[in-house]
Amino acid sequence: MRRKIRVVGAMIEQDGRYLITQRPPTASLPLLWEFPGGRVEAGETDPAALARELAEEMGIGVEVGGRVIHVEHAYEAYDIDFCVYRCRLVRGPIQHIRVHDHRWVRPDELDQYEFPPADEKSIAKLLGL
């Protein structure tokens, strides 16, 4: 049976721009861009996982809102169940603790960045919103 991983991402918008982060060079899918977030641990809710991941990776606090995107993607070794939630930044500044870089980008700029396949599906849905 294939391993299924639940992953959550944050859609944080400010002044018409969305926050994206770059994966570290030592991570899987190195240096690709993504919506910030991470894996949901056993017994953890999506909002709790998202708040934890953003605090661990960037030292920020967020208020987690409603789910806006849900996609599934099959990678070679595992399946991803990926949910993106609208979030509001409530504590900063952004630090690069477990991310290589970050950018605030307009929706029409997203195609200038290389994303993992699961995030590409999310972006396609985002642009359809």
Automatic annotation (TrEMBL):
InterPro entries in UniProt: MutT-like (IPR047127), MutY_C (IPR029119), Nudix_hydrolase (IPR020476), NUDIX_hydrolase-like_dom_sf (IPR015797), NUDIX_hydrolase_CS (IPR020084), NUDIX_hydrolase_dom (IPR000086)
Transmembrane domains' residue ranges: none
CDD domains cross-referenced by the UniProt entry: NUDIX_MutT_NudA_like (cd03425)
Source domain of life: Bacteria
Top EC category: hydrolase
Claim: Oxidoreductase is one of the keywords in the record: no
Needed cofactors: Mg(2+)
Keywords: DNA damage, DNA repair, DNA replication, Hydrolase, Magnesium, Metal-binding, Mutator protein
Nudix hydrolase domain residues: 3-129
Native source organism of the sequence: Anaeromyxobacter dehalogenans (strain 2CP-C)
Catalytic activity, as annotated: 8-oxo-GTP + H2O = 8-oxo-GMP + diphosphate + H(+); 8-oxo-dGTP + H2O = 8-oxo-dGMP + diphosphate + H(+)
Record protein name field: 8-oxo-dGTP diphosphatase
UniProt record similarity statement: Belongs to the Nudix hydrolase family.
Pfam families: NUDIX_4
EC number: 3.6.1.55
